[in-house]
Amino acid sequence: MTKPARQLISEALNEAANPVARRWWQNLLAAANALYTMLYTFHWKSKGANYYSDHELYSRIYESVEEDIDSIAEKAIGTTNDDSFFDAAT
Ligand SMILES: [Fe+2]
User: Fold this and answer.
1) What is the 37 CA–ligand 1 centroid distance (Å)?
2) In the structure, what pLDDT confidence band is assigned to residue 81 with cuts at 50, 70 and 90?
3) Which of 14, 25, 71, 89 has its CA at a distance of 20 to 30 angstroms from the CA of residue 34?
4) Could you read off the pLDDT of 41-53 as tens digits, one per residue?
C-alpha cells in the first residue's frame, strides 16, 4: 500500500541531516518551483476554443503546486533549522 505524500515527506525530512536526503529535497523543491513556473506560463498562454477552461485548469494546478512548495520549504527549514536548505534549492 502506498504511503500518503505527507507521511513520505515527513519521513524523508527526518533524515534531512543525511546529505543524500538533503540533496533530494533540494532537487524536489527546485523541480516544484520549475513546475509552478511552467504551469503559470501555460495559464498565460492558453488560447483557442478551450481558452477559458484551460486557463482555469492551469490556475487550479499551479495554485495546488504553490501550496506544495510552501509545505516542502517550511517543513525542510523547520526540520533542519537551516534556512540555507531553501537558498540552495533556488
Ligand atoms: Fe490569470
Assistant:
1) 13
2) low
3) 14
4) 999 999 999 999 9
Distance 20 CA to ligand 1 centre (A): 38
pTM: 0.72
32 residue type, one letter: A
Instruction: Give me ligand 1 centre to Cα 44, in Å.
Output: 6
In terms of Cβ atoms closer than 10 Å to its own Cβ (0-12, 13-18, 19+), residue 41 is exposed
Q: Give CA–CA dist 39/57, Å, rounded.
A: 10
Angle between helical axes of 19-45 and 51-80 (0-180°, round to 10): 160
Cα–Cα distance list, 5 to 30, 44, 71 (Å): 18, 29, 11
Which position has the grid cell 495559464? 43
Domain ranges of the chain: 11-79
Q: Give yes or no for a contact between 28 and 16, defined as CB atoms under 8 angstroms apart.
A: no
Round to the nearest angstrom and report the end-to-end CA distance of the chain: 33
